[in-house]
Amino acid sequence: MRYKHFKNADVRVSVLGLGSWGNGGADAQGNNFYGRFTEEDCLKAMDVLIGEGVNLIDTAPAYGWGSSERLVGRGVKGKRDKVLISTKCGLLPDPEEECINSASYPSVIRQCEESLKNLQTDYIDFYFIHEPDRETPIEETMGALEELRRQGKIRFTGLSNFTKEETEEAMKYGRIDVIQPSFSLLNQTNKEMILWAKEQGIDTMSYGTLGGGILSGIYRHIPEFEENDIRNNFYSLYYREPVFSNIMKLLETMDDIAKAHNRPVSQVAVNWSTQQPYIGTALIGAHNAGKAKRNCEAFEWTLTDDEISRISLEAERLGLTMLEPSWDE
């Protein structure tokens, strides 16, 4: 495993982190976001990742209505000293809606207590505001996070899905240690902000590394996912024409490089992201031990500078670098 040093947090973090969005399983509306899997499979994947040196697991109460946090709590039991836990506040599941913003001072304090209980721990390493709450002044939310830091219930403060301007405003009221934007070979829309944050000592946990699975190389024809699969919504852009066919052309270049190293295409995508000097750690989901092991094996080798350049130039030529996923309305 490779590691990077997070400046403001002053902590060593594996360049691969486990993203637990999909581990929440089905939500209250029955949306089973990433296909079918068992909790035991997810626990085995966590065990493999920790054994391979992955020391960061990211989750949130909005993932599976708290089930993802509870699963992470089970997975790190007896291994807490080996793992940095990242979770979030400010975006809560609601019985009548998918999620609601709730980042007031009392709400954040309450959410932290609930997460601590779910995670079976007495402190959280990285605590993020999941997304901006337009109804609550950021000063109020940051005040809650600073109080939780003083109490020792959280160690580091993060912002997820915030713009540069929103991040600058939050910095007026407390220290920001890390951000969590989407970033991949296909989606470099946040690169300018990530570079700016790096200059401030703020490191990045990026999500969407494999573009909803399309950069794994598994899908060579447009697949039919289950009705409520997230790839029919948040990542649907990648699975529609003409984008899909252009991604297939990009995969041909990645196929050549993968073949030269005798490695799967997914590891090419993982190394392309994690070898970017401005990315601290890339969050990737894993629902079984085999997938977890393959992801970790990406760090047994590296792409050359020429290979990174070749992939990047081909993505640019095909117009595939600014494809930011979003929820379909």
From TrEMBL:
Task: Name the domain of life.
Answer: Bacteria
Annotated InterPro entries: AKR, AKR_Detox_Biosynth, NAD(P)_OxRdtase_dom_sf, NADP_OxRdtase_dom
Q: Does Transcription regulation show up as a keyword for this record?
A: no
* Pfam families per record: Aldo_ket_red (PF00248)
Q: Which UniProt keywords apply?
A: Oxidoreductase
**Keyword Chloroplast belongs to the record:** no
GO cellular component annotations, sorted alphabetically?
A: cytosol
User: GO molecular function terms here?
Assistant: oxidoreductase activity
Occurrences of domain NADP-dependent oxidoreductase (ranges): 16-311
Q: Which SUPFAM superfamilies match?
A: NAD(P)-linked oxidoreductase
By what name is this protein known?
Aryl-alcohol dehydrogenase-like predicted oxidoreductase
Native source species: Faecalicatena orotica
